[in-house]
Amino acid sequence: MAVTEDRLFGKSIKRTEDPRFITGRGKYVDDLKLPGMTYAAFVRSPHAHARIKGIDVSQAKAHPGVIAVYTGKDMTGVNSLPCGWDLRKEKGIPGVVQDLAMVPHMPLTSDVARHVGDPVAVVIAESQDAAQDGAEKVQVSWEPLASVTATDKATGSGAAKVHDAAPSNVAFKWALGDAAATDTAFKGAAVTVKKRIVNQRLVANAMEPRACVARFDDATGELTLWVTSQNPHVHRLLMCAFVLGIPEHKVRVIAPDVGGGFGSKIFLYNEEVVCSWASRLLKRPIRWTSSRREAYLTDAQGRDHITDAEVALSKEGKILALRVKTTANLGAYLSTFAPAVPTFLYGTLLNGVYDIKAIHVEVTGVFTNTTAVDAYRGAGRPEACYVLERIVDAAAAALKMDPAELRKKNFIPKFSGAFQTQVAVSYDSGDYLGAFEKLLSIFDYKKFRTEQEAARKQGRLLGVGFSTYIEACSIAPSKLVGALGAGAGLYESGKVRVHPTGGVTVYTGSHAHGQGHETTFAQLVGDELGIPMEQIEIVHGDTGQIPFGMGTYGSRSASVGGTAIKMSLDKIKEKGKRIAAHLLEASPKDIEYVKGQFQVKGVPAKAVPFGAVALTAYVPHNYPEGLEPGLEETSFYDPSNFCFPFGAHACVVEIEPETGKVKIVRYIAVDDVGNVINPMIVDGMVHGGIAQGVGQALWEGAVYDSESGQLVTSTMMDYAMPKADMLPMYETDRTVTPTPVNPLGIKGAGETGTIAATPAVVNAVVDALAGMGVDHIETMPLNAERVWKTIQAAKAGK
Amino acid sequence: MKLPVKMTINGQSVSHEVEPRLLLVHYIRETVGLTGTHVGCDTSQCGACTITMNGQAVKSCTLFAVQATGANIMTIEGLAKDGELHPIQQGFWEKHGLQCGFCTPGMIMAAVQMLERYPKPTEEIIRHQLEGNLCRCTGYHNIVKAIEWAADKMAAAK
Fold it and tell me: So what's the pLDDT on residue A4?
C-alpha cells in the first residue's frame, strides 16, 4: 500500500486518548465504585510448598464488617483454571516427545499450596480494611514440605515433587528440526562452539497492578466483570466455558483503561474467577485489587530458561548447524498459554536471520514451586534471539572474526514471499543485510573500533554489541495454531458502524493498554473513508459492545485487528456505492469513492457525500430495490501466515573497571516492522521495549531462595526496575519491508525492542571485556557485582 | 476509632472522619473520590501516587490522611486551570510522554516541583529527579523530552 503525503497513515499524530490520562481522568478498574460494593482480600500460602491440614475461618467470619469467607472446599462445581495450549502426541501436535502433564490449577487450592502466594481462601467485607483484617484472622494449619525452585534442580533425584501427575517434575518434552542432519553437519565442521546460556526469570511489572470488579445482577442473571485484561473475550470464554460453567451470553467482561500488560494480563487468574463466583452467591459487587507484593507472587512471570547451545561453522565463518537443548521452568501451575512459549514461540525462531541448513532443538518443560511462567513481552522469541546472538558472538570470538562480518556472511539474502526455515515456519519478507548496513552506517562502526582501541590503551573498558533479530507476530492462521495445540483461533474482529449523521464507531476485538489504538485505528479509518479523525470513535475492551475478538498480545493489533477493520470498511464502501449509484442514477460499477464522496468515475461534480449516503441508508425512502437498510459491517480476519519483523540493534557500553558498573553510552535501533501507521507511537513502543530488554541484561531478575522457596525479589525495593537515570536516550530508525501477508503491509512493532536489546547489551559487555580474555558470561543480569566478579576472575586467569 | 481530617484539595475544602491508619492516597482516591492519583506499589518506590502538598512533591502513600490535616494539596485533577492544560501536561501530550497512562499523573506532579527547582534542567537533572517515579512503557526517553519541552515553554512564558 502506498503511503502518500495527504494520508494520515504514516503521520506522527498526537494521541487522542491522552487528554484523559494527563488530566487524571483515565478510568482504570480500581477507580470503579459501585453502590453496595464489597472488597476481597485473599489468604495466601506463606510457604513454597505445604500441605493444608485445616483452615479455621471462624474468627475471620466474626470480624466486624466481614460478609463471607470462602475456601476451596466451598467452591463445589468449580473447575480448574484451564491451560489453553495442549502438547499431546495423540492429537498429532508436532514435536511432542513426552505429553504435557495437564495438572489441575484450582482457583483456591484446598489440598496443597505449590508456591508462595498460592491463594487458599478469600475474605469479602464491607471495606478493604475489614477484608484485610479478616484475612489475617483466617488460621491455616500448614504442614510445610520440601520445595524446589531452581530450573536446573527440578528434575534432579530427590527433588520435591510439585504434582503427582508429573513424575520427576517434567511437564513435557518437545523437539524440532532434523537431528540427524545436525549431527552430520557438526561432524564435518571446522569449528564448534558450545556455551551454557541462562535466560533468567523476569517479572512483567505493568505499573497498574491487576484488579477486578465482579457484579452479579440478580434481576437479570447477568454478571459483569471489569478486569485488567488484554483480551476480554478470552477471559469470558475461559471463565464461562471451563471454570464456572455459566452461560457466556449472560456474562459481560469489560477491560477499561488498563495500565500496561506486557503479557501478564493475557491470562485467566484465580482472583477474577473467585470474585465472579462469589458475586453470584452474595449478589453484591466485589472489588479486588492486587498489592504490588501480590503482583510479584501471582502475576505470570517470564523467561527462565537454561540452555546449552552449540554452533558448528566452517573455518571461513559460515554457520553450518545449530544444536540447542533448553530446560524451561513453567512454575507451579500451567498458566493459560504457558506450553506454547518455550516451544512454538521459541524453537521456531532459532533460524533467526541466518541461513542455517541444519537445526535441532530439544525443550524440557519443568514444574517447580514458583509462580507460573507464561508470555512476557516477546515470549519465547527473546529467548531464541538471545541464544542465537550470544552464540554467534561467541563463535566470532572463537574464529577471531569481527562479529559484524560473521553476521554479514550468514544473513538470509533479501526476499519477499517465502523463506522456508529449518524450524517449521516460513518467513514473509526480509532484508536483513539492509537493516544491518543502515545500522552500521548510523553507528559509524569503523570509527568506533578505532576509538575502542585507543580507550583500551588507556585502561578503559569500552565495548559494542550487535543484535540482528527476527520476531514472529500476528500468529496465524487459526487452523495452523490449532494443529500446533492452541485451544483458540487467532483471528481478529472489526466492526464498523456508520451512524445516520455520518459519524463512525469502530469496534475492535484487540485491546489497548498503552498502544494507542484510539489514535492509530482512527488514522486508518480516516484515510479509508476520507473523513476527519474527530468523526471517528474507536471502541475496545467490552464484550457487551464488540464482536468476539482475540485481544492484544504478540504484536497483532495493527496487522490483524487493523486488517479486520479495513475489511469492514471495504464492505461499507461497496454498499455505499450501491446507494450512491441509485441516487446518481448510475451503475454501481461506475462509482468510485474519493476523498469522502461517492462519485461517478472521473466526474467529481457528479457525487454524493459520505454523510448523505449514510443518512440514506437509515432513511431509505429513495433506495435501491432489495438492498438492506443500515450501514454497519463486521469482519473477522484470519491471516494466512505470521508476520516476521526484523532489525539490527547496536549498544555501546563503558564499564567502570573498579566497580564493574556498566554504563550505556549509546543505543541505536534500526527496526523493520513493515508499514507504520504512526511513527511516534511505534518509536515509543521501541523505546519501552529496549528499556525492558536492557533491564533484563543489566539489572532485573526474579530470585528465589533455594532453601525456603521464598521469592526474595518480591517488592519494587528488591526487584531492580529500570529507573530514568539508568537508561540513555535511544536512537531509532527504520527500514520498511512491507509484509505480503496482509493488505496493510504491517508486520508488528510491540516486542522488537525487548527481543533485540538484551543480547545487544550483553554482547557489548562481553566485547568490553574481550581484551581480558572474556568471551561469555553465563548468567544475567550483568549488574556491577557480576561484572566485577567476571573481571576479577579474568584477572586471576580463571 | 475515627479522627477528623480537614484539608484543601485542588482549592476545595474537604473534611471527613477517618481511621488513623488510612493512607493519604486512599483518602484522596476512596474517600474524596479523586482517582487520578494512582497506587502502583506498596513500598513507596513507584511514585504513581505523587501529589503536591504545600508546594512540595510528596508520595501520598507515605503519609496518613490525618498527617495532612491543614495541608494544601494539589492532585493531577487540579493542575489544569480553567480547562487550559499546564505546560507539563501539554508536554507529555506533545512528546508522547505516556503510553498506558498509569504512571503519568505521578510523573507530571513530580515534574511540577522539579521545574520549580530547576527551571532549565539538563537531561541529567531530569533523569536524576525522576528516580522516584517508575514507568514500564516509555523507557523514559519521551518523558525526558516532555519535561524539556515544558521547561522551554515555561521559560518562554516568563
Answer: 41
Residue A64, sorted as left (phi over 0), alpha (psi -120 to 50) or beta, turns out to be beta
Residues in chain B within 8 Å Cβ distance of A33: 30, 33
* In contact, A341 and A334? CB cutoff 8 Å: no
- DSSP letters, A43-58, are EE-SSSSEEEEEEE-H
Burial label, A313 (beta-carbon count in 10 A; 0-12, 13-18, 19+):
buried
Rounded to whole angstroms, the Cα distance separating B71 from A346 reads 55
Distance CA(A140)–CA(A623), nearest Å, equals 72
Pick the CATH number of B87-157 from 3.90.105.10, 1.10.150.120, 2.60.40.10, 1.10.60.10: 1.10.150.120
Which amino acid is it at A157?
A: S
Which structural domains are found in chain A, ordered by start? 18-24+491-637 (3.30.365.10), 32-145+208-259+265-298 (3.90.1170.50), 302-476+641-795 (3.30.365.10)
Residues in chain B: 158
Beta-bridge partner residues of A199: A305
Q: How many CA atoms lie within 13 A of A40 on its CB side?
A: 33
Instruction: Provide, as residue numbers in chain B, all residues whose Cβ is less than 8 Å from the Cβ of A14.
Output: 93-94, 96
As a CATH number, domain B3-78 is 3.10.20.30
Inter-chain CB proximity A724 and B126 less than 8 Å:
yes
pLDDT score of A798? 65
Backbone phi, then psi, for A267, in 5-degree steps?
Answer: -90, 155
Closest CA to A754 of A204, A328, A329, A209: A204
**B99 vs A514: CB contact, 8 Å cut-off?**
yes
pLDDT digits (tens, 9 = 90+) for A457-480: 999 999 999 999 999 999 989 999
E strands, A492-548, where? 492-498, 504-508, 536-540
Measured CA to CA, the distance from residue B88 to residue A22 in angstroms comes to 9
CATH 3.10.20.30 positions along chain B are: 3-78
| B100–A30 CB contact, under 8 Å | no
For A:100-139, CB contacts with B below 8 A are: 128-129
Confirm whether pTM is higher than 0.80.
yes
**DSSP structure string for B41-108:** -SSS-S-TTEEEETTEEEETTSSBGGGGTT-EEE-GGGTSBTTBPPHHHHHHHHTT--SS-SSHHHHH
pLDDT in tens, A420-459: 999 999 999 999 999 999 999 999 999 999 999 999 999 9
Task: Summarize pLDDT for B107-120 with one digit per residue, the tens.
Answer: 999 999 999 999 99
Low-confidence ranges of chain A (pLDDT < 70): 1-5, 798
Question: In the structure grid, which three cell numbers stand for residue A777, read together?
Answer: 558470561
As for the ipTM of the complex, it is 0.98
Task: Write down the H helix ranges in A419-561.
Answer: 432-443, 445-457, 478-483, 517-529
The dihedral formed by the CA atoms of A714, A715, A721 and A726, expressed in degrees to the nearest 10: -130
Helix and strand counts by DSSP (H, E) for chain A? 18, 29
Query: B139 and A690: CB-CB below 8 Å?
Result: yes
| Torsion angle (degrees, nearest 10) of CA A346, A347, A348, A349 | 60
Least Cα separation, residue B125 to chain A (angstroms) = 9
**Residue B148 phi, psi (nearest 5):** -60, -45
Contacts of B101 in chain A (CB under 8 A): 17-18, 20-22, 26, 257, 259, 514
Whether residue A259 and residue B102 make contact (CB cut-off 8 A), yes or no, is yes
Inspect the interface and report whether the beta carbons of A22 and B92 lie closer than 8 Å: yes
Question: How many angstroms separate the CA atoms of A577 and A572, rounded?
Answer: 9
Chain B CB contacts of A723 below 8 Å: 130-131, 134, 140
Provide the pLDDT for residue B158: 83
